[in-house]
Amino acid sequence: MKNYRLITLITMMVMTMCVLKDTNAQTVSGAGRLWQGGATPVTPSVSFSPNRDVWNDTIQKISYVWNGSQWRLSPTQFGKGAKGDTGTSGAAGVCPTCPPSGGANIGGVRWVTTWAELLNALDDNAVRSVHLAANITQTAKWRMPTSYTFIKEIEGHGFTWSIPNTLDTGITRYYSSLTNANQGIDMQLRVRNVIFSGNNNVGMYIEANYGSEFKGCRFYSFSVAMDLRWCMGTIIDQCYFWENYIGINLDYARFSGGSNSASQSNHCIVSNCKFRSSPTHFAPIKATAASGLVIYHNIFEGGTALHDGSQYEVYFDDANSNVVKEVNIYGNHVEQKPSVSAFHIKLKDGNAYVGGIYSQYDCTLITLESTAYAKMIVDNIPYLTSGTTFNNINSSGRWKFINVPATFTITDATKWVGAIPLYPAIDSFKSSGQSNYLKGISVE
Fold first, then answer.
1. I want to staple 231 with a disulfide (CB 3.0 to 4.6 A). Which of 68, 194, 198, 209 is the partner?
2. Which SS3 state, helix, strand or coil, does residue 122 take?
3. pTM, whole model, 2 decimals?
4. Where along the chain do its domains lie?
C-alpha cells in the first residue's frame, strides 16, 4: 500500500513538471517551473512560460497556469500547507517583475520610484506611459526628445516631483529653427496628478507641442511654473498654481523662422484652475501673441490676510501681431485685490470678450490698451463693488457693456482711471437712469 502511494505521488510530480493542461483542454509538453509570490499579478513576467510554468499565490494558497491571455487553475495545486509550503521538494520560484518596479516595463508602461528610473523612462521612446510610485527629487534637467512625435503620459498618482534651485529649469525642449521644430510639433505631452514643487526657478520650458494636456496638477513656488512656446491646442484644467511669480506663460517661440504670427501658442484653454498670488508676483496668466486663447471658470486668490494679490490676474499682449484678433475670458472669480488691474488686454485690433466676472474687492477690473480700434465687450457682470474702475489706454479703444448693474453709468468719471473713452456704449435693460451712449450722444 505504501509503495502504491509513493508511485502515485511521483507520477503527479512528473505530470506537473512535464505536462500542464488548462481548462480549455490545451496540452503543452516541456519542462515547467514553479513561481511563488503574493497576490497573482494581472499579467505575468515576459519570462513566465504560458501553459507550462505554475504561479503559486501564497495569499490565496491557490496555484495558476497562464494560457497566454488569462489565468487558469493549475491541475496540481501547491501551497496547501499551513505555512504556504511549495510542495514536497524544490525551492520557491521568484518573480522579479510582478508587479513591475525598478524601471521594469509592462509593454510600454513603466512605474518608477527614483529620479534615475524616471529619467530613463522619459528618455525611452518605447515607453509611452510613466507612473510615479513615490515622491521624486530631480537632479538633472529632462531634455525632451526633439524628434518625438507621439503621446507621452506622465501619471503622478498624487506624488511630488521636486525641482530644487540647483536646476534653473526642470523640463526643457529647445529648437534652433521653425524647420527643426516642425519635427516634434505633433508630440502630445499628457501630465496628470503631479505635484510640481520649485524654488524660484522654471518648472518647464517647452517649445513645439500640439494637443498637450495638464490636468489635476499642482505648481508651487516657481518663478515661471509653465513656459510654453509654440504649444498649440494646449489644455490646462483643474490645476493649482500656488505662489508663482508667473503661473502660466503662453508665448511665441523666438527661434529662427519663428514670429508673433508663425510660432504662436494659439488655441489654448485654461479652465477650472485655482491661483494664489502675493503682491510681489506679476500674474497667474501671461499671454503674448496667443491667438484664440480661452480662459474659463478660474479662481484667483490673494496670498495675504488683506487679500492683496499680484499685479494682474491675466496680462494679455498681442505683441502687435497681425493675426491676433481676439481673446475670450469668462466666468472667473477675482477673490483678491490686484495692484494694477485684474485683466489687462493689449490688442491692436479685433475683439476682446471679458464677462461673467465676480469681483469681491475694489480694484481696476479691466484695462484695454489699443493702438488701433480694438473692441472691449464686457458682458454679464451682475455685481460691481462701489470702487470698481475701468481703464482705457489710448483713445482708439471701443467699449461696449452688456447686462451690467443698472447703477453703473459709463459717463461717471469716478468709474474710469483715466479719461472716459470716446466711444462707450451700454446694451442692457435700462433703469436708474442708465442709457446707451454712442460718440457722447444719448440714444433712447
1. 209
2. helix
3. 0.76
4. 2-73, 105-443
pLDDT, tens digit, 9 for 90 and up, residues 210-243 = 999 999 999 999 999 999 999 999 999 999 999 9
Q: Residue 285 corresponds to which cell in the numbers above?
A: 496668466
Q: State the cell numbers at 202.
A: 522654471
SS (H, E, C) 5-72: HHHHHHHHHHHHHHEEECCCCCEEECCCCEEEECCCCCCCCCCCCCCCCEEEECCCCEEEEECCCCEE
What architecture is the 105-443 domain classified under in CATH?
3 Solenoid (2.160)
For residue 435, the model assigns a pLDDT of 57
Location of C-alpha cell 459709463: 410
β-pairing, 293-296 with 269-271?
parallel
Of 300, 301, 283, 206, the C-alpha closest to 245 is 283
Mean pLDDT score, 155-165: 98
Listed in sequence order, the residues at least 6 apart from 97 whose beta carbon sits closer than 8 Å to its beta carbon are 45, 104
For the cut 70, the answer to whether the pLDDT of residue 83 exceeds it is no
3-state secondary structure of 430: coil
Contact assessment for residue 64 and residue 73, using Cβ atoms and an 8 Å cutoff: yes
Q: Is the pLDDT of residue 144 over 70?
A: yes
Spatial CA neighbour of 340 closest among 376, 369, 383, 297: 369
Pairing of strands 364-369, 341-346: parallel
Q: Which amino acid is at 444?
A: E
Q: What are phi and psi of 288, to 5 degrees?
A: -125, 120
| 37-63 pLDDT per residue, tens | 778 888 888 788 888 888 788 777 788
SS3 content of the chain, % helix, strand, coil (to 5): 5, 40, 50
153 to 109, 162, 181, 186, 187: CA distances (angstroms): 9, 18, 21, 14, 11
Going edge to edge, which strands form the sheet with 240-242?
136-137, 160-162, 195-197, 218-220, 240-242, 274-277, 299-302, 333-335, 358-359
